Amino acid sequence: MQGDTDYIRLDQFLKLVGLVKSGGEAKHLIQNGEVLLNGGQETRRSKKLHAGDVVTLGDYEVTVELEPQA
């Protein structure tokens, strides 16, 4: 049985794609409700994102693309 390994945390994703410069900035924006996930407000910074999820911050919208773990 394969575990749920094909994901990235919301705060990590924001840093990876360059929408924030630090984990602290990501935490602040997420907790203040400024980040949308698939069109809905997301306030959990550890929320697991999967391929196809859409993250919106201000005027930026980014679709999650992940390569499966071997």
Describe this structure in words.
It is globular, with a radius of gyration of 12 Å. With 70 residues, it is of the alpha+beta class. The chain contains 2 helices and 6 strands, in the order βααβββββ. The chain has a single domain, classed as RNA-binding S4 domain (Structural Genomics Hypothetical 15.5 Kd Protein In mrcA-pckA Intergenic Region, Chain A), CATH 3.10.290. A hairpin with a 2-residue loop joins strand 5 and strand 6. The protein starts with 7 loop residues before the first strand and ends in a 7-residue tail after the last strand. The longest helix is centred in the middle third of the chain and has 9 residues. Helix 1 crosses helix 2. Strands 3-2-5-6 form a 4-stranded antiparallel sheet, with no helix packed on it. Strands 1-4 form a two-stranded antiparallel sheet.
CATH topology: Structural Genomics Hypothetical 15.5 Kd Protein In mrcA-pckA Intergenic Region, Chain A
Order of helices and strands: EHHEEEEE
What's the CATH class label? Answer: Alpha Beta
**What gross morphology would you assign?**
globular
Count of discrete structural domains: 1
Q: What does the main sheet amount to?
A: 4 strands, antiparallel
Spatial gap, N to C terminus? 14 Å
Broad structural category: alpha+beta
Tell me what the CATH architecture is: Roll
User: How many distinct beta strands?
Assistant: 6
Helical stretch tally: 2
Which percent band covers the strand fraction?
A: 15-25%
Mind telling me the CATH superfamily name?
Answer: RNA-binding S4 domain
- What is the helix fraction of residues, given as a range? 10-25%
- Strand line-up of the largest beta sheet: 3-2-5-6
Low-confidence stretches at least 5 residues in length (pLDDT < 50)?
none
Oligomer: single chain
Work out the radius of gyration: 12 Å
